[in-house]
Design goal:
single chain, mainly alpha, 2 strands
Length: 311
């Protein structure tokens, strides 16, 4: 079975006129057909070399084994919101409903994050349960880290958000410099995966700080902040569908914004009807979200088994 990467190779040669100009300057044969579309000579040695590499079964198998992250689809974003919302309600359940306390809750949640992350990094292939466990624990750990920066250290939400934005840019820059790529759908090395999870942890922490700032310090209030976040997410969706803005940039913007969106959804589930919520409480909300996340994890696991391995 041909490697799926062959399609991206062909797209690269058919996509941009700037690439065409570069190829023509280098002496590779390309011409326009009667409809203005570009045609490339498949006898060109550069094209043959790229297609040969893309169709190499050993290369396909290597990438399939190393790719341990979920593919970015609509289901991914639904699961991400469920996971971050569950992180919010489970954290409240542990620290407030069960009266464990903030300090002990932080130790427990950070320990769970480190254990799940180490397990994910040591895994040899993609495991949906393990992957989404790490996403869940980065949400709870991010909440703890944000509260520590904003409240314990007294930095405040605005300054904390600016520091975290700087940290996220630094992580992405180091990732790009080290790996020459910022792919969020194909992770080939342990170092790239470490950068991936570092960026996710910082993103979830930033999302928490940003959501708290909008709700408490911006003057927008709870509903105003929620409406703004929902509006920004809609803008990201429209920009993704209608423009060619860098997809990596849009991914991380959406990833940050879905964290406060999930927190808002969590408040809606846990608060009483008199407070404008649905009244499920932290226990009921956590159970509902855990059930939804489990259903989607099972779905992705079944879908993963249906995908044939490269021949």
């Amino acid at each position: 079975m041909p490697c799926p990467e062959i399609h991206s190779v062909l797209d690269q040669y058919r996509d941009l006129e700037s690439r065409t100009a570069s190829l023509m300057q280098g002496g590779h044969s390309a011409c326009q057909d009667g409809k203005g579309a570009m045609r490339f000579d498949t006898h060109d040695p550069i094209v043959i070399l790229d297609l040969h590499k893309a169709n190499d079964p050993n290369r396909c198998n290597s990438q399939s084994v190393m790719n341990k992250v979920a593919q970015v689809t609509l289901v991914f974003w639904v699961m991400k919101i469920c996971a971050t919302t569950l992180g919010e309600t489970a954290g409240d359940l542990l620290s407030m409903t069960m009266n464990v306390g903030y300090a002990m809750s932080s130790v427990i949640l950070l320990s769970l994050f480190l254990l799940s992350l180490i397990s994910q990094l040591r895994a040899k292939e993609f495991h949906p349960v393990l992957y989404w466990t790490v996403i869940l624990t980065t949400s709870t750990a991010g909440t703890t880290m944000s509260d520590f920066m904003d409240r314990t250290l007294g930095l405040g939400y605005a300054k904390g958000s600016l520091i975290l934005i700087t940290c996220l840019v630094a992580v992405l820059a180091a990732w790009r410099f080290s790996q020459k790529s910022l792919s969020v759908s194909l992770i080939q090395t342990t170092k790239a995966e470490a950068f991936y999870w570092a960026a996710i942890l910082v993103s979830n922490t930033l999302g928490t700080a940003l959501g708290d700032y909008l709700a408490d310090d911006s003057g927008l209030g709870f509903m105003g902040g929620a409406a703004l976040i929902a509006g920004l997410l809609l803008v990201v969706v429209l920009v993704t569908c209608l423009t060619r803005v860098n997809r990596v940039l849009l991914f991380w913007v959406a990833f940050v914004l879905t964290r406060p969106f999930g927190a808002t959804f969590g408040d809606l589930l846990t608060k009483t009807p008199t407070q404008g919520g649905l009244g499920f409480g932290t226990v009921g909300s956590s159970a509902i979200l855990a059930g939804l996340l489990a259903i989607f994890v099972i779905y992705t696991r079944i879908a993963q088994k249906r995908v044939p391995l490269p021949a």
